[in-house]
Specification:
694 residues; alpha/beta; Nucleotidyltransferase, domain 5; Rossmann fold; 6 domains; globular
Length: 694
């Protein structure tokens, strides 16, 4: 049967807040609960209790729970996983330490490379060799594996990762090694040919190590979550959202937890894509700012851009190449340490800096009155008047303006000879400029102009900063959807059952084996559909992509392929498709060089019903202002009497003139002086630049 036709619940564990959204046959009930680091599942249970009480239903009425979490990410960043063994091919013990030998900061003579996830003493090698064509060149040394198993058993290890050279072409040696080890060990064993069957050994080895490293912790957490949900009466199936934006079973997530590393941000991108589809906006930049990080994602033709790899835990000023590469399908976005809890500080050159360190939920920003003493972005927003200290998070958290002012003055203002208000403005300006720069870089890297897009802002902190960000980026329109404060959790409710299977098979276009290609694609299709069928029996759509290059090039580009069996007569069609795609990336194709296949991808997902379209209204009737308070205005450089308007008091077609703050339980939307806000027929707020023609 297909799950979740009536009552669906999304649960997103973030670094600061855990967001819960319940869809009761079209009505959304939501809440934010501080994340519990000791027992992460407790925040989910507390949130479920709140939303089911608000909806007037027992937890037993929930049909499906969809969950995303940062636990795997945090375990990798904070190095809190299991002690893990890596078993690899003789001669390749140090691949994860040597990396690609690329210097991510070329002129830093004191450059320190990130430490490998698994130290050298916990890495073992074994003889046996598969060629780049997938043929066995040297038999696997099974006797050596028996000895390695005994060594592992005698020590305190929690997981095993196996990564052999060229196993993406032929995983037989890895599978045999796992069989031998399981005779002696009762440990989870991850093999690279299943976790990430892609070319490039550093990325593949690192990915299987990361999967093994977090696997015991995630398996324990997921089992504990299911047990406690059943104890409270929620006996429905639980599915996880993975980094590529689809849903997989808990069993799959427990076996391949590395697929969950970007699960929360993926939900946010799906949420924004759904809003874009409803308003028929084909060029959108989504802006998701929570308590710990901010994410920017480009969405075209209602689909977020995707990639086959990304980096976790960049250690050097968020510089590309300084993190831990994870080679899995993922929604492509840029993420920076700029959330409401990000710490503000002054560097040795007297410049205000923010993040990447976060106050998170424990102890939280200084204004939370939970023991935090260092100033965070939320403290600055409070001092500037953007937040109501008595109604933060629906009144569940009382904020102290005095604590915020004292922390900002002590750690930022005093050293720069600024009062608390000026220092707070400096903090948010730095944050907004950092996010604007990140958005510009992300757009340029993808050959786009960010100002051509409509922004969709969500997350607890994004609506506070979105208008100012639009000013800096030259964006004229920004949408703040209903439920923006828990946007990722709502995005979970709209995610399809989906899975992307990938596999590498290097072959020239002129000489590739048609039968071998079709056999490989059939296997990828079966794998992808198998995961999808764990959640639905509905109709499934498939997308086939070949990653191709000119022979001798170091990287490849994605080329969409027809979903059918190929014949020899398809070579000219494939060549033309590659050249057309190459020209899109680089201006023109090149005649003469041989063309190569490198990797193939098959994405399968269930077909979701189309959404009802909403006409974008840019003109509205001015509304009366129920109240005001002093809010800092960047345009004038001083605090101004600013309209304070409850979101629930506004109806479709009403216009709020900036400056104003539109307040709701889970966030507040700051409408700066250059913007007005028009309420759409579905309750979405449209901020648009003054004077913009309809």
């Amino acid at each position: 049967m297909s799950y979740g036709q009536d009552i669906r619940l999304g649960a997103d564990i973030g670094g600061t807040f855990t967001d819960i959204a319940l869809d009761l046959r079209g009505s959304i009930f939501s809440t934010k609960v501080l994340t519990n680091y000791t027992a992460p599942e407790q925040a989910i249970l507390d949130g479920i209790e709140i939303v089911t009480r608000d909806a007037g239903i027992p937890p037993s009425d929930i049909d499906i729970i969809i969950h995303g979490t940062t636990l795997a990410t945090n375990a990798l960043i904070e190095r809190r996983g299991a002690r893990t063994v890596l078993i690899t091919t003789e001669g390749f013990r140090d691949v994860i330490e040597m990396r690609t030998e690329n210097r991510f900061e070329q002129y830093d003579l004191s450059l320190v490379l990130p430490a490998p996830l698994i130290p050298r003493e916990d890495r073992f090698t074994v003889k046996g060799r598969i060629s780049a064509q997938g043929e066995e060149l040297q038999a696997l040394d099974e006797a050596a594996l028996e000895q390695i198993a005994r060594t592992i058993k005698a020590q305190d290890f929690g997981a095993v990762a196996i990564g052999f050279i060229h196993s993406y072409m032929n995983g037989a040696h890895e599978q045999r090694a796992r069989e031998i080890l399981l005779r002696h060990l009762d440990l989870p064993i991850s093999i690279s040919s299943e976790v990430s069957p892609q070319m490039r050994e550093f990325e593949r080895f690192n990915t299987v190590c990361a999967n093994a490293y977090v696997r015991p912790q995630m398996a324990s957490y997921l089992a504990r979550l299911q047990d406690r949900l059943k104890d409270m009466g929620a006996t429905c199936p639980v599915f996880m959202i993975h980094s590529g934006g689809g849903l997989v079973s808990v069993e799959t997530a427990a076996e391949f937890p590395v697929r969950l590393v970007e699960s929360g941000p993926a939900g946010g991108a799906i949420f924004a894509a759904d809003v874009a589809r409803r308003f028929d906006l084909d060029r959108v930049v989504s802006y998701d700012m929570g308590g710990t990080t901010a994410k920017i994602c480009l969405i075209e033709d209602f689909q977020p851009q995707t990639a086959r790899s990304f980096e976790v835990a960049r250690t050097y000023r968020f510089c590309k190449g300084s993190g831990m590469p994870i080679s899995i399908p993922v929604i492509e976005m840029i993420e920076i340490g700029a959330g409401g809890g990000s710490i503000a500080w002054v560097d040795d050159m007297g410049r205000i800096q923010t993040g990447p360190e976060s106050a998170a939920s424990e102890p939280g920003p200084a204004c939370y009155q939970r023991g935090g003493e260092r100033p965070a972005i939320t403290d600055a927003d409070l001092v500037l008047g953007k937040l109501d200290p008595d109604n933060f998070a629906g009144g569940k958290i009382r904020l102290s303006t005095e604590n915020a002012r004292n922390a900002i003055s002590r750690d930022v203002g005093n050293s720069l000879h600024l009062d608390a208000t000026a220092a707070a403005f400096g903090i948010v300006e730095v944050v907004d400029e950092n996010m604007a720069n990140a958005a510009r870089v992300h757009a340029v890297e993808n050959g786009k102009n960010v100002s051509d897009n409509t922004m969709i802002a969500f997350g607890g902190a994004a609506p506070l900063h979105a208008a100012r960000l639009c000013e800096k980026l030259g964006i004229d329109r920004c949408l703040i959807p209903q439920g923006a404060g828990v946007g990722s959790a709502i995005g979970f409710l709209k995610a399809p059952f989906g899975y992307e299977a990938v596999g590498s098979q290097i072959a020239t276009l002129s000489g590739f084996d048609i039968n071998r290609l079709n056999t490989m694609l059939d296997g990828l299709k079966a794998t992808a559909e198998g995961f999808v069928r764990a959640g639905t029996e509905g109709d499934i759509s498939r997308e086939v992509v070949a990653f191709m290059r000119y022979a001798g090039q170091g990287w490849e580009i994605p080329v969409a392929m027809p979903d059918r069996h190929f014949t020899a007569q398809d070579r000219p069609m494939i060549e033309e498709a590659f050249k057309a795609r190459y020209a899109q990336f680089f201006g023109r194709a090149v005649d003469g060089p041989e063309i190569e296949f490198v990797t193939f991808s098959v994405k399968a997902q269930d077909i979701r019903p189309d959404v009802a379209r909403v006409h974008l209204v840019q003109d509205g009737t001015p509304t009366a202002v129920p109240g005001t308070r002093q809010v800092f205005d960047p345009a004038s450089g001083d605090a101004q009497e600013t309209a304070i308007v409850p979101r629930e008091s506004l109806s479709a077609g009403q216009r709020v003139t900036g400056p104003a703050v539109i307040v709701e339980r889970e966030t507040s939307t700051v409408v700066t002086s250059p913007f007005d806000a028009v309420i759409q027929t579905d309750g979405t707020i449209l901020m648009l630049r003054k004077g913009l023609n309809a």
